[in-house]
Amino acid sequence: MSSHDLASRIDAYADLLLKVGVNLQPGQKLILRTTTAAVDLTRAVVARAYDMGSPYVEVIWSDDGVTRARFMRAPEDSFGIVPEHVAEAMVRLAQEGAASLAIVADDPDNLRGTDPKRMARYLANWRPRLKPYYELSMSDGIAWSVGAAASPAWARRVFPDLPEDEAVARLWEAIFHAVRLDTEDPEAAWRAHAQQLVSARERLNSRGFAALRFKGPGTDLRVGLAEGHRWDGGSSCTPAGDRFIANMPTEEVFTAPHRERVDGVVRASKPLAYAGTLIEDFELTFEGGEVVSAVAGKGQEALDQILAADPGARRLGEVALVPVSSPIARMGLLFYQTLYDENAASHIALGQGYAMTLRGGAKMSVEERRAAGLNESLTHVDFMIGSADMDVDGETPTGEVVPVMRAGEWVI
Ligand code: ZN
Ligand code: ZN
Fold first, then answer.
1. How many angstroms separate the alpha carbon of residue 306 from the centre of ligand 2?
2. Ion ligand 2, residues whose Cβ is below 5 A away
3. For an engineered disulfide with 351, which of 62, 276, 377, 392 has Cβ 3.0 to 4.6 Å away?
4. What's the pTM?
């Protein structure tokens, strides 16, 4: 791919993120959270946003080196400091109806060797300050989306055996393929794809399953679903009626497990990259919703660290179904980036559940969500359990068993 080709494809990608991702409207402002590792895509997004009639794009930059310097070197009280001006800009713009786009391109190992307690403290101070913003985004009150850009540090991790420029080119190719930019009409491809996800989620919703059963090599797991759970996935809709796609790419439909109703054993089907460590060949055993045993062939310490974050980190907050025929699954790559890896296979997540996966959940109190079975935690760690050898059944409240997936593909 020549550099001219790359530039024009980045323009087309920027266009797709704005038109399909956040569905930017003329006159609508844009919050753009991005990184110095994605300068070209950032500039393309900003240029296209103004072309599309946005009056203002607020660009909020981060930088791997700056972030790492703080987490490695700053004194402990640094992590109680919240940059008020950034939080205020995000909250104010969201309340004015701005769309919000994030671009990720970070080095998966950027925070390797930093104290995880620092991140926990940083997030514990940052999240409450951004609460009005998250309340709007998590309830689809504003249009938001996340995309990715190839960077040298990230590409080196995905393709360790290739020279850096080749690795970056291959990662761009993978990104463009995953977001369907190599189809004839990417916008039409996304409309059709989103419609398929919406219809899968509606079929699951109409069944009202009490539980899902996963069976595969090393896996025999029953995941009870939260009371009043709803399946989400595909496109979302703002109160103004604008459709948006919250993750680019997205291949999943997902819902809330019941915090106390998960039993059996599950074997991960792919390694899990966590805080610079790779956890491989691992198996979790659940009783009454809680992990009672966790054994990893490699990375046991990191796995133990995930589970020790808080009591909710030992229980599930998400269950998601992804067919093995998705473009990301077919590439067979490990991306070390949740946006991509979680769309490669059916997965479950330890930690926080999503309020939007409960009917009326966005308006519920914490106590009401808890009563429905939604899990609470400061963490949310997805790991892959799906494969071409995985069967999934749904169990209705009356005990009827309905095939949902066979050999990793939809049958419902
Ligand atoms: Zn997911
Ligand atoms: Zn997740």
1. 14
2. 318, 349, 382
3. 377
4. 0.90
Distance of CA 354 from the midpoint of ligand 2 (Å): 9
**C-alpha 352 to ligand 1 mean position (Å):** 12
Rounding to the nearest 10 degrees, give the CA dihedral for residues 336, 337, 338, 344. -70
Q: How far is CA 317 from CA 95, 116, 226, 262, in A?
A: 28, 21, 10, 11
**Residue 1: pLDDT over 70:** no
Closest ligand to C-alpha of residue 353 is: 2
* Amino acid, single-letter form, for residue 25: Q
pLDDT of amino acid 124: 82
**pLDDT over 80 at 138, yes or no:** no
Please check whether residue 80 is in contact with residue 125, taking contact to mean a CB–CB distance below 8 angstroms: yes
What spacing in Å lies between the alpha carbon of 258 and ligand 2's midpoint?
15
3 versus 49: the higher-pLDDT residue is: 49
Query: Which ligand gives the minimal distance to the CA of 322?
Result: 1
- The pLDDT tens digits of the residues spanning 83-105 come to 999 999 999 999 999 999 999 99
- Virtual torsion, Cα 295, 270, 383, 274, nearest 10 deg: 80
